[in-house]
Design goal:
single chain; about 30% helix; Lyase, Ornithine Decarboxylase, Chain A, domain 1; binds pyridoxal-5'-phosphate; alpha/beta; 19 strands
């Protein structure tokens, strides 16, 4: 059973102080999870998690992860500037972008970030930087289907990311010519993989390719970037991944493939987003309307603009009603927002306890790819973000947008007086 990380009473207190809807984050959970990850990979002295900023770009959250020893993974100039503002330095920043404007490479280079090349044509842009980086990463796309334990996990052949195997060789050779001294390899093949087998299978693939590239070109590979993709149990019947089992699987592959290839001092690094944050966020909303037509609807003050995943991926997000966790789930509701969009549904045909207007409705697992994917459709304003501190206090870490924010980028005709 999934329960909110705060009691119904605490949630009501917080909602009395900060109007709903808001995203609420759990500092304790974030820190404990980050520590477990570091502990699990402690066998690898160079291990580092580069948190994928796009999953949750809130500065206070980034600072918590920084304190826990994480770096950041950025994909755009804005994310790089945020990383710089937060005091991430040099190789604490991974720059894993694609279709990259040259200006972004320039900025990444100025910050001393590790640049991860998505394509063989990126080499031409690297050659034009003010100086050639000593260390670079290359993104691999093996094509075909990616199979783990006999089941197809995803179809890299359809993914826009990364280079083919032969392009990797071509890129390494060209970069060696330019004077690059150290290499890493990266691949992101499966998203939200809720299995202990994904990272070990990915690691095996990457270790093999690195061993080959080292043989073919003599290039020195000093790190393997397993990227993101580790999943979390959005559904209450799913089991979370066992991070020590995941790490043990990566270690076995490391010792079988990488160490014998003479690359035993390489670092294993990750760019996890969802795994670091998703379970430690709730979207807290109030039931504001009820409607009975061909179905029973509960209308929230939150909508898909606060959490896009159900609308675009048909993703499941667990819902609890504060204080009614143990009531019989004997009502079937569609829980919806107020956008003029029929996909604005947090849940369809969901068994829930009877919901009264004014009840606090908790949408789980919104800590990653939640607020950050928000948008302003229908003039909906972005919500606040609140941090539940380890000491139990609640802190506003981003205020809600106001109508003035919404109007700020608009140019009104002169005849209109605001
Ligand atoms: C999105 C992304 C991540 C993080 O993905 P999660 O599924 O949140 O772990 C990591 N690396 C890159 C390059 C990404 O685009």
């Amino acid at each position: 059973m999934k329960r909110p990380f705060a009691s119904a009473q605490r949630l009501r207190e917080i909602a009395a102080e900060f109007p709903t809807p808001f995203h609420l984050y759990d500092e304790r959970g974030i820190r404990e999870n980050a520590r477990q990850l570091q502990q699990a990979f402690a066998w690898n002295p160079g291990f580092k998690e580069y948190f994928a900023v796009k999953a949750n770009p809130n500065p206070v959250i980034l600072n918590i992860l920084k304190e826990e020893g994480c770096g950041v993974d950025c994909a755009t100039s804005t994310e790089l500037l945020l990383a710089e503002a937060m005091g991430f330095k040099g190789e604490e920043i991974m720059f894993s972008s694609n279709m990259t404007p040259f200006e972004s490479f320039l900025l990444a280079h100025r910050l001393g970030a590790i640049i991860n090349l998505d394509d063989v044509t990126d080499v031409e842009y690297i050659a034009q930087l003010p100086s050639i980086p000593k260390k670079l990463c290359l993104r691999y796309n093996p094509g075909g289907t990616f199979v783990v334990s006999n089941s197809i996990m995803d179809t890299p052949a359809e993914a826009k990311f990364g280079m083919t195997r032969s392009q990797l060789t071509e890129a390494v050779r060209a970069l060696l010519q330019l004077g690059v001294e150290e290499f890493g390899i990266h691949a992101f093949l499966v998203s939200n993989a809720v299995t202990n087998d994904y990272y070990p299978a990915l690691a095996r693939t990457l270790f093999q390719v690195v061993a080959e590239l080292h043989q073919e070109t003599g290039a020195r590979f000093t790190f393997i970037n397993l990227s993101g993709g580790l999943g979390i149990p959005y559904r209450p019947d799913q089991k979370p991944v066992d991070i020590s089992a995941v790490s043990a699987g990566v270690r076995r592959a490391f010792e079988e493939i990488l160490a014998p290839a003479g690359l035993g001092s390489a670092a294993v690094v990750t760019e996890l987003g969802r795994y670091m944050l998703a379970p430690y966020g709730h979207l807290v909303a109030t039931a504001i309307r009820r409607k009975e037509t061909h179905k029973s609807y509960i209308g929230l003050d939150a909508c898909a603009a606060d959490l896009m995943r159900p609308a675009i991926y048909r993703a499941y997000h667990h819902i609890t009603v504060a204080g009614k966790e143990d009531d019989p789930h004997d009502h079937i509701y569609d829980v919806v927002g107020g956008l003029c969009e029929n996909n604005d549904k947090f849940a369809i045909d969901r068994p829930l306890p009877q919901i009264e207007l004014g009840d606090l409705v908790i949408i789980h697992d919104t800590g990653a790819h939640g607020y950050s994917m928000g948008y302003n459709y229908n003039g909906r304003l972005r919500s606040a973000e609140i941090l539940l501190r380890t000491d139990g206090s609640a802190e506003l870490i981003r205020r809600a947008e106001t109508v003035d924010d919404y109007f700020a980028t608009m140019k009104f005709p002169q005849s209109v007086r605001l």
